[in-house]
Design brief:
Layout lengths: L13 H12 L7 E7 L5 H14 L3 E6 L21 E6 L6 H9 L9 E8 L6 H6 L6 E5 L5 H12 L5 H7 L6 H13 L3 E4 L2 E4 L6 H12 L3 H13 L2 E3 H8 L3 H13 L3 E4 L2 E4 L2 H9 L3 H12 L21 E2 L6 H11 L4 H8 L3 H15 L4 H10 L1 E2 L13
Parallel strand pairs: 1-4, 1-5, 2-3, 3-4
Antiparallel strand pairs: 6-7, 8-10, 9-10, 11-12
Helix pairs in contact: 1-2, 5-7, 9-11, 9-12, 13-14, 14-16, 14-17, 15-16
Organism: Streptomyces luteoverticillatus
InterPro entries: AAA_16, P-loop_NTPase, Sig_transdc_resp-reg_C-effctor, Tscrpt_reg_LuxR_C, WH-like_DNA-bd_sf
Keywords: DNA-binding, Transcription, Transcription regulation
Length: 412
């Protein structure tokens, strides 16, 4: 959990700690146990794993800690002192969702013979939407897996966690702002600490009070960086859902994405497993108000308007036309948006806002090559030869009628 002091009190996880204590205690009776601590990113899995290691040490177990980050392998437990090989032990693995087939086999099989010592494996991992190598082991009837699933914190525990970070309990006004995090530990901590760093929170005596209701830069950057780590389909779905509101029907999202609902099910599973959306009877709801606000703010207003217009089935709005000189030859100019696809209209609007191809690609979850491809089509359809000309067309709301395209230089 980013920002949490390792020895700070563990807030709101009393039931989980009690269960872990009971399960880890089984190894003292000679039983082998496999425990997984599961949940979406930022829910506190690593913090609870550290607590489980302390519990194991309290029982007198030797603890082998392993960490994976997707680049390095966890492997099996470290070699222990030969004199301790007959004693019970614990293996704790963080980010276990990064384990591959070799890692899983080594982790479970090493020193795992029937005559080996009692042991407990404690694995912290993200909830999975697919079937990675570890899932096959966990679902095995012989594994004896015990799952500890983490959700959000209850309001009282969330405010206690905020008080730990701020050094004082929040007053009523600040508590309402922090409550937008919905009890998600990482977002709550980054919201509180970021606001404190930027002067949006003041600590006076024994209370923390709200000065300015403004999203801290560190939180905005963290969420943007996290989203860029997912697939383009993932980012596209969450942006469409965010543009359409805090709660939206799956059918409407599918319509805007121009996809059959069945084709979107794998992406929906990924989004739900990541803790971004909840799916209840076809209604998609953002897990918390803060996350919806952050993702919505990641998109320019022109993109949000285009997506909402597409969802409503209404014609795409165009800016009022500015007076233009009549053309000596050719038909009357038409609204530029009527001749562009939805994707092309969005890209044209972002060019008008001054974004480069690379910035547009990052905003829309596309490659710069794809943006360049769409932009060439926009140039051809509108009969313009430069970004300056395109900006003038978008600002005026009209463009030349389709005709032979001029020679195009590669867009910047």
């Amino acid at each position: 959990m980013l920002g949490a002091v390792p020895d700070a009190p563990l807030r709101g996880r009393e039931a989980e700690v009690d269960r872990l204590t009971s399960l880890i205690g089984h190894v003292m009776a000679g039983r082998c146990t496999l425990i997984t601590i599961e949940g979406p990113p930022g829910c506190g899995k690593s913090r609870l794993l550290r607590e489980s290691m302390r519990i194991a040490e309290g029982f007198g177990l030797s603890v082998c800690a392993k960490y994976t980050d997707g680049a390095c392998s966890a492997g099996g437990p470290s070699r222990r002192d030969p004199e301790d090989l007959h004693l019970p032990y614990a293996v704790a693995v963080d980010n276990a969702h990064h384990l591959d087939h070799e890692d899983v086999r080594a982790l479970i099989a090493r020193e795992g013979g029937p005559d080996g010592p009692a042991r407990v494996w404690i694995l912290a991992r993200r909830a999975s939407a697919g079937a990675p190598p570890l899932e096959g082991v966990l679902l095995s009837p012989t594994a004896g897996t015990e799952r500890v699933k983490l959700g959000t914190l209850p309001p009282g525990a969330a405010m206690a966690l905020a008080a730990d970070a701020l050094g004082a309990p929040p007053d009523a006004g600040l508590a309402r702002v922090l409550g937008r995090a919905g009890g998600h530990p990482r977002r709550l901590l980054e919201l509180a600490q970021g606001m404190l760093e930027e002067g949006s929170i003041a600590v006076d005596g024994y209370r923390a009070r709200l000065v300015t209701d403004r999203l801290p830069r560190r939180l905005v950057e963290r969420v943007e960086s996290s989203l860029m780590g997912y697939s383009p389909e993932f980012r596209q779905m969450v942006r469409v859902a965010a543009a359409l509101g805090n709660e939206v029907s799956f059918e409407k999202v599918a319509r805007v994405l121009n996809e059959a609902p069945t084709a979107l099910l794998p992406t929906l599973d990924e989004v739900v497993a990541a803790g971004v959306l909840e799916n209840s009877a076809g209604r998609l709801t953002f897990r918390d108000e803060l996350l919806h606000r952050l993702i919505t703010g990641w998109m320019p207003e022109t993109v949000r308007d285009a997506l909402r217009g597409q969802a409503s089935g209404a014609p795409r709005p165009t800016a009022p036309a500015l007076p233009a000189e009549p053309e000596a030859d050719g038909p009357e100019a038409a609204p530029y948006g009527e001749r562009l696809s939805d994707q092309e209209a969005v890209i044209a609007g972002l060019v008008h806002e001054g974004l480069t191809n690379r910035q547009i690609a990052r905003r829309l979850g596309l490659s710069p090559h794809t943006v360049n491809y769409h932009l060439r089509k926009v140039f051809r359809k509108l009969g313009v030869a430069s970004r300056v000309d395109l900006t003038r067309v978008v600002r005026g709301g009209t463009g030349k009628a389709p005709g032979p395209a001029p020679a195009l230089a590669p867009p910047a």
